[in-house]
Protein 1
Amino acid sequence: MKELNMKPPSGTRDFLPGEVKKREWAFGTIKGVFESFGFLPIDTPAFERLETLMGKYGEEGEKLIFKILKRGDRADSGETDLALRYDLTVPLVRFFAEHQERLPRPFRRYQMSPVWRADRPGKGRFREFYQCDVDVIGSTSLLADAEVILALTRALSRLGLSGCVVNLNSRKVLAGLLEVYGVPQEQRQSTLIALDKLDKIGASGVIQELKSSSLPEAAVNRIEDDLLEGAAPRDRIEASLTGRQGLREVDEVISLVKPLLKEGAIKFSPFLARGLDYYTGPIFEITLDGAPGAIASGGRYDDLIGGITGKQVPACGGSLGIDRILSTLLADEQNKKDTPSPQVFVTVWDSASRAEALRIATELRDAGMTAEIYLEEGKIGKQIRLASERGARFCLFYGPDEQTRGEVTLKELSTGEQTSAKRESIVHILKTLTSG
């Protein structure tokens, strides 16, 4: 018989109880921040119709969509009609188109759900991962963009992550630059894809990629000069009307956000591209000192909803890369306190004691306490060791001597101190002790 591979599929992970509790703490913290800004929760299916997702992410993105084969009688056809969601933004647009008459305007939403990408797995890169998104639909005001950025940076701060840098640009700045550089219209999208790799392959890698393309030499030389300088002069951007519009957007968002950033900074990054096709205005990525890559990103996508509904509706949003964030978080005391530990560990003396031990544990749970019962019997020393390993505060004993006296014995594991209490008063005694 062939031995089964017990590892999860490549690009996915199992999570142990302590890891799950840490994730739940992070999700709860982020949720609290998002709701304090007035964002409302929604949820959408794990998969969407294929036509809903296609044509939204660009050629590179669409290669990474997990497609689902038709089922039943069509299973052998090799045709696909559904796909796992690639992100939470396009499903949001579909959701808004379906429910827009029942939603407030502007509509502020947040969603924390898994997404799937058929990417090559690597360090910090998974095929299944969570996104935590906030979006504002129905406002052209750059206050909406500022609110999204402030919500994300505050969430990072509440998670204990400091030193965040918001790198801000506008797709209009990029369009203006490509115009001034002399990049032909039909080659602008491929040029943006190359620029989007700047943080991965560096300026020299981008330049080499552009030189190996059919881009005019003069255009490559102009881009090379600015990339090696690490900036594009404002006067070069302002030579284009579109570029000037983009600069005004960038300047306004910075003026709104910068005074309110208690930690971190915001700066103009003229070569930040964000590879997805649907962005139309301000775009951003948030990086963290000492952590590779962006831990949050987003931008404005004013044309995406109109492309589906036929009615122009402005929108912007951003997403936290929760898996990258969790890998960055240190195991500090704030996280440790949420490891799953019972307040009371109920020991079982023998088989005759099981029913009463279970009754005690149930009474404690009914009173709002966390209680774990040992599932075997005998060897009290072994049970105490397990209670200690589980991080329990108290170990409860109800053996023959205690039963004769109508009492229970409590042992506080951190001090070794033991206390006896009447059986009928155990809930009151423990509630008093655990509330202190």
Protein 2
Amino acid sequence: MKRLALLLMLVGAHAASGQTIRGHLMEFGSDDPIDLGLIIMISEYGDSIASTLSASNGFFELSAPVEGNYLLLAAALGYRESRVGLFELGQDGEISVEFRLWPQPLELEGIMVESLVQEPELVQNGFYRRMQRGVGTFIRPADIETTTALRAAEMIQGLAGVRMVVDSNGLERVRLRGASGYCVPTLFVDGVRTEWGRLALGLDEIVPLETIYAIEIHRGVSAIPIEFGSFNECGVIAFWTRRENARRAP
């Protein structure tokens, strides 16, 4: 796990300072603050730059490492997902915004009720919100608890459009089926994009099966949720690890 932590720090760290957008997330109409809303800063090219959760008074702050044009995406339980921007941030620039979301009735049936109580992390990071859209393949904690798989690769091998291959270095790699054949997806671990294709690490070294809490797979650029950016036309595989290891940002 130390190796995994170091890997994520090296290849997926979010910006901590620089060009900054700060503001308040509020309910449209009442201006009540929205607590624990997810706000993501995205570049004009579709890359996820940074993310945070709003405070109890709705306050949030996000920073980008370089100047440029950025938009904000916000989502929260009981509210309609929305985005604002583009915001032009010059060197060391700062912008203040008021971000309002429309209330949306929350469907509290079956799986959602259970998830709110037992799996709040997956509610907060948007896993169940994305699953309810009906696009992508999702493996829930209950599925992992009952699996007979012994490795992470076995969990996803055999799913529609997923293939495991062995590269020239003997490492097991994941491929997703695209428009022109099987291609290399982007891999996220707890919301952090990794450069695992360039490293001498197999999938089971990066995400051992015993650490996995949930998995989601999105094939093709049109199916990639904006939270994961749009820099890979092949698709995205996102692993979420267990509570003691999980980060709060997607």
